[in-house]
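Listing 4. Sequential folding, example run.
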Amino acid sequence: MRILITIAAVGALLVGSLFLDQPAERAELVAGYISIETLDAQLARASEDIRVAYALFEGLCTVDPYTFTVEPGVAQSWEISPDGRVYTFHLRDDAKWSNGELIRAGDFAFAWRLGLMPDTAPPYIEFLQYIRGGKAFTDWCIEELARVRKIADPRLRLEAARARIDESHRKFAELVGVKVVDDRTLEVHIEQPMPYFLEIITSWPLVPLHPLTIQSVTSLNPDSLMLRRDPLWTRPATLVNNGPYRLADARFKRFIRLEANPHYWAADRVGPRTVELISFNDPTAWFNGYSTGVADIMFDAQALTALAPELVAQSVAGQRDDLIEIDGFATYYYCFNTRPTLPGGARNPFTDPRVRRAFAMCIDKVALVNDVTRLRQKVANTFIPPGTIPGYESPAGITYDPERARRELAAAGYPRGQGLPLIELSFNSNAGHELPAQAIARMWERELGVSVTTEPQEWKVYLGRRIAGDFIVCRSAWTGDYQDPTTFLDLFRTNNGNNDAGYSNARYDAILDAAAAERDRSKRMALLSDAERLLLEDEAALCPLYHYKFLNLHKPWVEGVNDHPRDFQFFHRMSVRPRS
């Protein structure tokens, strides 16, 4: 306990300056963040962005964050056709935008058309492609863009680019199974019956967008010939949203202030009326802020590499009651770049699954969890956390076998690592990833004879390079978005928006396609298990390390912090008692 008290005392000096940048009146609930990439819900992909997206936006349905049952959102009711392919949503009459305008069914169709276009590179485009014709529309957009770019005359090329955008409205109506019956009724047709489609409907990529606002900040980029949405549209003066909060104030790398949205249909049920998110440089600074009373909540305390094990030990010993420990529906893993060439054009040895298997098989995950992270995580040999999805049987996965790893590497033409380039292991800095990376680098060097360097990067740089495929091996993590194996397995489909590995395997895609068409649940689950077996045991497209342990800290006056394995934290469902 002495260590924590000492750090907190020093932290009091460090965080005092935060108040110079904050509004004069303290918010009812104060949390924090390390790095928020965007407030545009359609473009969110990281947990901190998603947390704010759910505060600012709401879809046709929402979820109870404590049970994950689907509840009415903008839609007050819905019907599902007997064949499970048509969903008819009835919008509530009191669903309004933050400017007081009525939300219409067409606002969803407007947003979903943009979400299916590759122009803004939405990372969760596949969620919308579950809708009938969604992928066909995306493919049309891509093909038309390619055609336009081949036009030699610059003036005609620009005219054709504008025509493509205009034509996208008609093509969306022609191809995509979204029908605006009237202002209060939206009919959605999906490709295949999906027992989890309502969970998809609750997700942030399917929220509506305010048409007039988006139209005013969207233009055609004359260089890329694609639509460009000004990222500054999410400023307080511009943002029109429909969630439980509105954006009252925001200062870059300083704070975000949310206030209860008076036009939200359930405004009387919003818990804290004001929420402030303070920007902290790293998890230690956030913990200092929490310890000294600057913040009421700290999410993701597992990133406190040196302190988190002590926090857990104190909680287990009954010495602190402010820690929520969650075995997450999530997996921490290393992602191999499977593209044919590395950044710069050199041949990529990780294109060979034998190389990937070698690197995956010589990581001693038990030692990693027991001696390095020390948070009692469950070792991961599979991508999907075992036992979390009823009826799904996990394969054996990829297990520790350094002798076989050396044989695999030699068979690939790299005995004892000879001929391999320097292996760069990339991860985002200041988030607890350095010690595991250093430990694994030593394992690779010891067991395989390779040379490894660890490459910490600032979050936005790291994320940008990971998305662009500018890495050899990088750390990653995935939290399931809905209760089905595909929430993990679809990640490695060819051209999935979150497929940072660049992995593509026709056999793997075909198994997923067969599972999507299979109506018998047990047969479908067996197919998906085969897909995970192929992904891990044969292909080693990734190396799962452990299933996430989420650690959240909260003051005793804050109630409603979620302990569900998916760790979705909804501020409006929390409550704050008078501080003692």
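-- end of first protein; second protein begins --
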Amino acid sequence: MSTDRKAPDPRVEVELVRALYRQGPLASFIALVMGAVMAAAIWGDVPAVWVAIWYALITANQAVRIALWRAFHRANPGPESVAAWARRYTAGMAVGGGLFGSAAWALPYLPGTEQAFLLVFISGMAAGSVSANAFHRPAMVVYLAAILATPTAVVTYLAMTERTMGYVLVAFAYVFYFLVMQGFGRSQARVLRQSIEFSHRNDDLVAALENKTALAESAKRAAERASAAKSLFFAAASHDLRQPLHALGLFAASLRTGTSDPQQTRRVDQILSSVDALESLFDELLDISKLDAGAVKVTRGHFHVESVYSRLATVHAPAAAKAGLGLRFMPTEAVVETDAVLLERLLGNLVSNAIRYTQRGGVFVGCRRRGTAWSVEVWDTGVGIPEAERERVFDEFYQLNNPERDRRKGLGLGLATVKRIAAVLGHEVELDSRPGHGSVFRVRVPAGDAARIPTSIAAPRAEALDSLAGKTVAVVEDDAIVREGMRELLGEWRCLVVDGASAADVAAALSRVPDLIVADYRLREGRNGVQAVAELRAAFGAGVPAVLISGDTAPDIFAAAQGAGLVLLQKPVQPARLRATLTRLLARGRAAREVAVGLG
């Protein structure tokens, strides 16, 4: 039996250790604050000199860690010495974990409430260390063992001496907690390592393209974009995989525009197809996870079903037209009481699923009264669903008539999401179908009261549905591919689009005051969308409505948008949501001007 294993990539090891040391003084500051809190918790119950000595040791350990951080950055080690720096970091974590865990010696002197606080506080520090140390598994394991060893031993001692079942349970819980945290950390470490390896494989692919094509300059720019995407990936990998996946898609798309070799073009197209499928799968899995975890907040209200129809038509009409199908929404005066966003998502999945499995005919969406509720129905003339399969189609990844797993037919998560949203909203979903003739899905939604509909979301008037037509939209986006996509989308809505990589480019191209501004947050040369909006407003008027778009989830971006009074949308932005936001901003700006005229 072969025992050969692939040797680790030295570049990956260097990146992992650099990520450990990147935490630096901030981690030490947090540790000092945590130590101070623990010292305050046990102060007065144990001899003060003991507490002072313990905290002095904590401070000394953090001072050594800061000195080690400085030495690491001065040395800037490479593959040949990075293992030694990893061992030094691990030793520091072992000492730090042991010191924090040693606070458990105070447990016998503390009353029950303070004992519980100390044990929970130590457990929280152990959990928080997993993400920080997952870049180097030995450091993670050593810290967990060191910080949990003393509490476990002390609690076990108390269980034996006081013969209290509570201490026995706590001791068992700590052992189980250690095993669980190790398992979680091992999984996170594997994801981080694979992510970095994948990033380096992209770098290798770029290098190969440079050697095989005459487009050396174009490949160099692509490598620089890949490096930037990789840096963003490291910043967000332990918290959120969505933005790195988005960066990978942009990198692949940029390669597509930089080669004229048919063979290379075909390969890049395959990469783009795989990225699109992965992003779609990730989005749908994330939705299902949120619904299963109860993390989706339901905001119920009264609204016209027609307002949901208008947004669904905007989103799904192009796909139906491309498939040669009709898509009709029966006019209705129905008013319902539920969460408008979640109902739109539920119906959107049903409409998308119907279009995907209908070869001829079309899809019809209607609404009829059923006692105290409205039955919102999606009909199609598709392949139909056999009676024996009607329960299974709501399971994850289960698909009919797609044994080859053709991605164009979806991933088998649409109806699974429908089932979960309906459960969250408390709505009943019914399915009737005739194989070979089509299917109908019915969602029963409680009837609402038209008098309780907020003015801002009343039934749309015909002229409001096309309120963007003829409006001048200034788009500031430094990525040419994203800019082109935005230009095409706004063009479909009959907007007049003036775009550029910077506010200066857009201002130079504008011949009139824009009706709307759409700006990406991160721009070239350290600029951002908040600054771009400010520059355009200074040139054309402070009252121009503006929306900010970002793929980042950092709190400072939300704070910057809020401070500037801008609406912030997170990438990837659904067209329907973008259109609704732009329409709302236009209406708000028009209302403000009318008030100003009235006051004048």
